[in-house]
Amino acid sequence: MPKTRMPLLKEDKPSKKMSRKVIFILLLLFLALLAVILFRSSLSRITEIHIQGNKYSTKDELLKKSGLKTGGQFFAVSGQDVEEQLKKLKTVQDAVVNKSFPGVVDIRITEYPAVAYELDEQGTTLEAILSSGATVPVSETGMPVEKPILTNWDADDPFKAKLSQALADIPNELTGDISEIVPSPTLSFPDRIKMYTRSHFEVITAISLLKEKVEYLNQVIETEEPGLIKMLEADSYVPFHKESQDEETEEGTIEE
Question: Do residues 105 and 143 both lie within one domain?
């Protein structure tokens, strides 16, 4: 009779798949433990906050708006969120936030440019008017150079903000000669203004027309002697000496 061979029983061995799963779980636990230790250590805290580019915004204002503070959680800070919060300030046009481990936050601010300035209601403090319409006190070093001064404007005048935007849209070389701007509204032109230049011209125009008319203004200033320039529906220029002659002629006619 042929002998029947019994099959050999194989010893059970852990599968490779199970080993990988165990390693993965242990790795996750290690990373979680490492994260907990890191978040509780001083390495997870903000140790330095550097701010650059601010002239009209104080450091305290920027820190309050950003929500950042020394000792706060470094990893909980979203640079994009901080940037969006800072841009809500009427002085801040753009903001860039960079984080450097461990604990350093760098903020670079780009502020709205100053387009004019004025004295406050007491006449004691110089204030810059930014292109955003914001009015901020300035130091002597922050005083805009060759910018017009606004006089007789109410703080809540809506045309004041529109004037600020109009000036911001015009290159500096085209507005550098303007020394003063005052409101002079009429029924036909509620945004009518009077401007005085450093070269002794008097200009009558409207805020809504200023951007398209300013080149004509500079052409007259560069080629003509001081006089009255009107830039409304039509443009005109009369030198002051001619106005004086006309007035003298009218007085002589009346006396006769």
Answer: no
Query: Does residue 219 share a domain with residue 171?
Result: yes
Give how many domains the chain has, as a whole number: 2
State the Cα angle at 183 between 181 and 184, rounded to 5°.
120
Q: How far apart are CA 49 and CA 254, in angstroms?
A: 76
Q: What is the mean pLDDT of residues 149-163?
A: 90
| Domain with 90 in it | 42-111
> Residues with Cβ < 8 Å from 133, sequence gap 6 or more?
90, 160, 161, 164, 165
pLDDT at 120 over 80: no
Sign of CA dihedral 169, 171, 172, 177: negative
Domain assignment present for 118: yes
Residue whose tokens read 């194989």: 10
